[in-house]
Amino acid sequence: MTRLSLFNSPLLLGFERIERSLDRVAKSSADGYPPYNIEKLSDERLRITVAVAGFTQDDLQVQIEDDQLVIRGKQQDDRDRNYLHRGIAARQFQRSFVLAEGIEVENASLDNGLLHVDLRRPMPAVKVRKIEIKPEAKHDAGQTIDVGADAVDAD
After folding, report:
1. Which residues are within 8 A (CB) of 106 and not within 5 positions of it... i.e. 6 or more apart?
2. What are the pLDDT digits (tens) for 2-12?
3. For the whole model, what pTM was predicted?
4. Residue 69 forms beta bridges with which residues?
């Protein structure tokens, strides 16, 4: 089956990396597990909160891969327990978030089954550059213009 791409236009060259990132995010979010929130704490700060009930700090991994924040969880199955009913599975997951340029991960903390990942998005300095407008050079008839090795008389 051929997959249609948003970036296969001949006018959009060099967007392969973005397309691969979008594909990875689509694959990791298709499952919907674990649920998460994204919260704006201030103009410069964001927080991603992931519900990871049953996971310990040792079961979780938070890392940045290229331009993505990747959160992984893997629990070890306790074989010594004899379950009569097992509704809470030891399930592994991977959740990815594409980070815009300039976003920095400040820290991650685990509190009551919620993994908080704090991000900082510094506001870029406004760049203003004034371009000087110069008068156009005018040439008078009869003026000699130097064009390198030979001088041309404009008469």
Report:
1. 45, 118, 119, 120
2. 556 666 666 66
3. 0.64
4. 64, 97
